[in-house]
Amino acid sequence: MSVFRTPLSSGIIFCTLVFVCLPATSASGQEREEREGIFESREQYFEFMGELREIDNPELKELIPVLNDVIMASHGLKDESYGTPFRGERAWMTRMLEHEVVRNEIDMLDYQYEDLQNAGRDIQRRMESQIRDALRQHTSGAVNAEQFLEQVNAIRRRSEQEMDDTLLPHQQDRLRQVLMRTRLSRESPADLLGSDALAEQLGIDDAQKEELSEQWQIIQRRLSDDIARLREEARQELIDQLEPDQRAKFDEIFGDNFSWRSGDRDSQRGERDREERESNEREERSDRR
Predict the structure, then answer these.
(1) Whole-model pTM?
(2) Spatial CB neighbours of 80, under 8 Å, sequence gap ≥ 6
(3) Of 20, 32, 179, 253, which residue is most buried, by most CB within 10 angstroms?
């Protein structure tokens, strides 16, 4: 059974923010009462979290960022959030609810949001309590990692149920859609569509993933050319506003237009080869269909 025994490696630096903000030595009783942080010093934090990371348990290691969020909130380094016990999709969904525009989009009522906030504070306290218990056991030299993991996961399961109970089905569905739309606007669409979870839902196989990736590269290059052209047109539109004598002086200072790309013969040949290759690839894909 896993226990917290492994000595802390001197090279482990887990969270610079916590390292800077936690006191170097034990705080006074009054300070501890005011901030109610879990750890009394940065040394205690690093020792505990370092040994936690050394445990050979993938599920526990995946949980470390969640625990760190709880620790940071306990020391006032970040706001308590209902998203604290979550990772992945649920974490994004809960944090998106902090924005009023998202709450309005899913028709979320004020009392629902207040319920989630209260639940978040309660979850934060319960998570803190589990970490404090583990820290006390760690000080005495006998922390049961598997039991600790099960207790924390039980809190996470309860928090997921509370979220499901608070939001109506249509609100959860729309919230997921908003999340996916947000990801689509910020991530590579080829990577997003090719992700395992989405590819499975859409029935996208490996061959189509590769084709989508190639097409996205072509689209990006075309987009880059279009943006460069529009920028040049915008610059020229502004320059055309100059008075005739100003324009004459401008031409004297700047001279004729120059492009690094057009002045490089190798680049020109490479561009022609690329365009021909892309044209052939499009024809081949069209034939396969």
Answers:
(1) 0.61
(2) 73, 120, 121, 124
(3) 179
